Amino acid sequence: MLDQNDMMLLKGMVESVMDEKLAGMESSILAKVDEKLTLTENLILGELERTRNILEEKIQKVHQNVDELDQYYRIKKLEDSNQALYAKRLDNLEDRVTKLEMDKRRSSLQVTQEASEM
Q1: How close are the terminal C-alpha atoms of the chain, in Å?
Q2: 10-residue block means of pLDDT along the chain (118 residues)?
Q3: Secondary structure of the chain in the HEC alphabet?
């Protein structure tokens, strides 16, 4: 049989071996957890990059649409301004034609009156 000292020595050896095995298992588990965390982090970063690219493309399309609308409104404003100028010129031309027609009638009436007086 084993005496008390042998039992204590055996107990110490078993505890030492168990501590070493537990330390090895712990470091192995921590290494695997770190590996999985790194993989997960890389997946998340990849998905964020993909989402960022999609959003940047959509923002670029919105900017292009805004630029097109801006050009459209500038053109529309110029067209409206041109139409207003043409309408004003047409009104002036109509006034001039009306005045010429009235002057022609007056001179025609004067000629008729002078002829009838003679």
Answers
A1: 171
A2: 80 87 93 97 98 98 98 96 96 94 84 71
A3: CCCHHHHHHHHHHHHHHHHHHHHHHHHHHHHHHHHHHHHHHHHHHHHHHHHHHHHHHHHHHHHHHHHHHHHHHHHHHHHHHHHHHHHHHHHHHHHHHHHHHHHHHHHHHHHHHHHHHC
Residue 66: per-residue pLDDT: 98
Q: Tell me how far apart the alpha carbons of residues 110 and 118 are, in angstroms, rounded to a whole number.
A: 12
Give yes or no for a contact between 68 and 75, defined as CB atoms under 8 angstroms apart: no
